[in-house]
Amino acid sequence: MLFIKKWQELIFLPVLHSGEKLSMGNNKETWLPRLRQTPLFAVWPEDVIAPLLARSQSLTLESGDILFAEGSSAQSFYFLASGRIDLIAAAATGQEKIVEIIQPDDLFAEAVAFLGGRYPVTAQAEAASTVLEIPLDLFVESLERRPLLMRQMLARLSMRLHFLVKELRRLSVESAEQRLVSYLLDLCPMVNGPTAVELPARKAAVAARLGLTPETLSRVLARIRKAGLINVERRMITIPDPLALRHWAEGH
């Protein structure tokens, strides 16, 4: 039951407002093409998205600013235009865990529309960031009037649940080496040849995301580098042979 409760909490990703608010005004033409590139809004007619944009606004955040706090009333969901946002859950022990690192062009907190209450996690800017704040009430009205869009939203929630099941398996079953390698390979644009990936956040944040200490993450990176499977230059990691890296992890 505890795992089920955590799934329910993590599916609905929340928001509190910090930073400078900027009116969208006539800038909706700037946001529309980027929203249309997201899986959620790709099939939305422009006449349905337009009212959402008319009532939306951009927010600018500095590193460390809180976008929304755990337990705060949920009124909006968000599109990240630039920067990075950490989604943080508090454990009963008082410790905090990064459950997801939001990247530019990601939507987040839209599923909270089906919770109808409060944000279950905290969102904090990991770097200077700009987000578009979209009203949940009008979003829900649009879904209720269009069954096809509602089915698409349910499919998105199903994908989110699948992701969380995968994450629970990683945290409870996989070794530190397997967690890190799986994470790196998920970032790879290709796995059938040499590639390079950039860690989306500070190593300490990535470690927290994987349920590791920063020291453990550094030791695992050093072991993989010593095996000749990666090269590390600050946040940039070069992987000469992703398949060989996967096979190495399977033996650990």
What do these coordinates show?
This protein is an alpha+beta fold and 252 residues long. Helices cover 42% and strands 22% of the residues. It contains 9 helices and 12 strands. Strand 11 and strand 12 form a beta hairpin. Helix 7 packs across helix 8. The chain is globular and about 55 Å long. The N terminus is likely disordered.
- Largest sheet composition: 5 strands, antiparallel
Strand order of the largest sheet: 1-2-9-4-7
Share of β-strand residues: 15-25%
Mean pLDDT: 81
What does the radius of gyration come to? 19 Å
Shape: globular
Helix content: 40-55%
Terminal CA distance reads 30 Å
SSE class: alpha+beta
Helix run count: 9
Features:
252 residues; alpha+beta; five-stranded antiparallel sheet; four-stranded antiparallel sheet; 9 helices; globular
Summarize the structure.
The protein has 252 residues and is α+β, with helices and mostly antiparallel strands.
How do the strands and helices of this protein lay out in sequence?
Blueprint: H1 2-11, E1 20-23, H2 28-36, H3 46-54, E2 57-61, E3 66-68, E4 76-82, E5 85-90, E6 96-102, E7 107-108, E8 122-125, E9 129-135, H4 136-145, H5 147-173, H6 176-187, E10 195-198, H7 203-209, H8 214-226, E11 231-233, E12 236-239, H9 242-250
